[in-house]
Amino acid sequence: MSECIFCKIGKGQIPSKKVYEDDKVIAFHDINPEAPVHVLVIPKEHIESVNMIDENNSKIIAHIFVAINKIVKELNIQESGYRVVTNCGQDGGQTVGHIHFHVLGGRNLQWPPG
Ligand code: 5GP
Ligand code: ZN
């Protein structure tokens, strides 16, 4: 999947405004933010969407949420609150075929989404 843009961001081949990185995960500011804080958290490993999560790769999801906990503390939204969203497929509004978790905060978010 050499053409996947999020794989390329994970490898540092496309620049991003990084907020967190470890050996398995990278987090960076969304290029088109929908809230004062809008970060994307992705596994470096290519997984297309929630549809591709199984017993063999599911540990990365727990690891991503541990990373999110660190990121929201760092970005000062842990106390005020935030939303973690992963869009899946066409009706879910997924536009990039590499699983990613949106972390949105810094304003009062409305519910339900449109
Ligand atoms: P989706 O619509 O798939 O849930 O979310 C994809 C997100 O990736 C969008 O919010 C979009 O703004 C963001 N995005 C797409 N391409 C890039 C990029 O090259 N760099 C960054 N930082 N964000 C991107
Ligand atoms: Zn990818």
UniProtKB/TrEMBL annotation:
Catalytic site positions: H100 (tele-amp-histidine intermediate)
Pfam families: HIT (PF01230)
Organism of origin: Clostridium tarantellae
GO MF terms, alphabetically ordered: catalytic activity
Domain HIT, chain residue ranges per copy: 5-114
Motif (Histidine triad motif) on chain: 98-102
UniProt name for this protein: HIT domain-containing protein
